[in-house]
Amino acid sequence: MMKYAVEVDGLVVHRGRNDVLRSISTTVPTGAIVGLLGPSGSGKTTLMRALVGAQRITAGTATVLGLPAGHPRLRSRIGYVSQSPSVYDDLTTRQNLAYFGRVVGAPSRDVDRVLDEVDLRPQQHDLVRDLSGGQQNRVSLGAALLGSPELLVLDEPTVGLDPLLRRDLWTLFRSIASQGTTLVVSSHVMDEAQRCDRILLLRDGTLLADVTPAELLERTGTADADDAFLALVGAAA
Asked: Is 7 within 8 Å of 13 (Cβ atoms)?
């Protein structure tokens, strides 16, 4: 097993005249949950798009599962859930999973496995538009899990959810990671940092910290992630 699922070195992304990512260098250990945290506009989505090969890189490198980001051989090895809805609301849960399973070439039995993993078997015949927000998020996550990807890249999967639903999703993420899958999960909710094995803290396209949750609090001498972030911003100003 490779030590790192993701290796980023000097990654720069320009959009027009703007520096969206500024020489980002980091690694993501295999089998870990790594939280990509920071306020809106910090570059989280751009970095995730670069990892899945959907973003043009201006300079530097991004290596994913031993291959350059965007390599055709990575398509079946990475699951990606974007902020925008990635499933069809006029299809049932099962129909969505069956469709996306065919797209990625997953065996038909994967649909039942994923229904159980995301706890949606009772809703398998419900139209997605009739599901709750949390259930719809789990359908998108289920689609990303088809084919047993080695890396899951999840862009703000808990946004807009109440604390109970957020807790349930993080419990699911931990269960997935325990089976050897690597997760990169972005959020602008700083208390979710405590649920990660490692934290990448971004602001204005710059990597402010690459630490464990305990190291973050120790480094800043604070009691929670919100205060830690404010301390880091103040130190960088």
From this structure: no
Rounded-to-integer distance, Cα 141 and Cα 154, Å: 8
Q: pLDDT tens for residues 162-172?
A: 788 788 888 98
Predicted TM-score (pTM) of this structure:
0.89
Nearest Cα to Cα of residue 151 among 13, 41, 2: 2
Contact assessment for residue 118 and residue 171, using Cβ atoms and an 8 Å cutoff: no
Main-chain phi, psi angles of 183, to 5 degrees:
-120, 135
Q: How many CA atoms lie within 13 A of 174 on its CB side?
A: 11
Nearest to 99 by CA among 122, 128, 73: 128
Structural domains of the chain, ranges and CATH numbers in brackets: 4-77+151-236 (3.40.50.300), 85-149 (no CATH)
Among 206, 226, 222, residue whose Cα is nearest residue 11: 206
| Residue 204 three-state SS | coil
Taking the alpha carbons at both ends of the chain, their separation in whole angstroms is 40
**Other CB atoms within 10 A of residue 171 CB:** 12
**Is the Cβ–Cβ distance between 207 and 37 less than 8 Å?**
no
Gyration radius of the chain over CA positions: 18
Cα distance between residue 197 and residue 53, in whole Å = 24
DSSP bridge partners of 37: 187, 201
Residue range 20-78, pLDDT digits in tens:
999 999 999 999 999 999 888 899 999 999 999 999 999 999 999 999 999 999 988 99
